[in-house]
Structures
1.
Amino acid sequence: MVSLRRGQISRTAVGIDVTVMSSQGPARQLAPTWELVRGHKTGALSDNEYAHAYGALLSMVSNETWKWLFDQGNEEGAASLLCYCRDGNFCHTHLVALYAEHIQPDWFVCATQPPASVLDTEWAQGLVKTCN
Ligand SMILES: [Zn+2]
């Protein structure tokens, strides 16, 4: 079991960059699109609209990529999803953790409590389980 946390990208942060700006390798599959990022930043997309659209991208992520993410767990059974957003803000890293636990509950547990802005989306409320 891998505990999925989230963190802010910094010089010292250890984890998996899942941003459209700088993710690499299999992690790119977990990045949103620039269109989504810009849409959310400008307010053209609400949190809920962003979550639905990004959730649709997550539903296309291959099983190999989820397995790859599982394999990124450290010896303590944890992996951190990194983005430029500050902790506590609406961020797609929370959506990844919620979704991963939803589709592979034997592999993943969401280990960073998402903010209300994430949990209050219809998208998140539509998932069977919420973060522990
Ligand atoms: Zn973010």
2.
Amino acid sequence: MNIIRLLSGFMADLTGVRTCPVCGRELLDGEEAICIGCLSTLPRTATQHMPGRYADIFANAVAPQGLTEAWFDYDPESPYAQIIRRAKYYDSPRLARTLGRAFGRELTHRYGTLPVDVLLPVPMHWIKRMRRSYNQSEEIAGGISETTGIPVGDNLTALHRHSTQTRKNNEARRANIKGTVGVDAPEELQGLRIAIVDDIVTTGATIAECVAALSLSGARPQTIGFITLGATYQRR
Ligand SMILES: [Zn+2]
């Protein structure tokens, strides 16, 4: 069933008909990215649990933990997982950006002005980027920026390639990604409230690597946090 839904969505994208990645229904005028029904039942993440759940990411950080937000609980078995899959693997930079915009709009409703000065997308190595043609984290950050007014910085860079993080436990993920992120012009980040942006947070290994890179670079931000579309329920 999932395969059929995915294929029909992919074909619909090719033919210019926009469909909801969750239920497969054709989107109406005014519906962005997902249909209004699926948007209303989106399993939104309980915001108050986020900081404690991912506190270890910031254990050795140079700055205190800032805003940590995820839009919805990510369960790979749920139809909602299609949102991330389509934004990431099906050549849908526009979908990734639209989802970022939608979440940015909800965050603005909740906070008014977000306690964030700069969005830093998780970087993608240029070889992978060339193959996929876009970095979904950059697109998501771009969408959040459009609805919140927070600028996107390009300070995080990918130094080396690493193999996929999928199907690895927390320890293996951290070892796999260690030393792969660099920081350009760390002095630009002095005193700023940073939010690292990614599509999904699972064990937090990728974001922890970005936090470690920021600390090693000599950057002196005011706080470091993150914003993702999905967060996994079971972390390990
Ligand atoms: Zn739908």
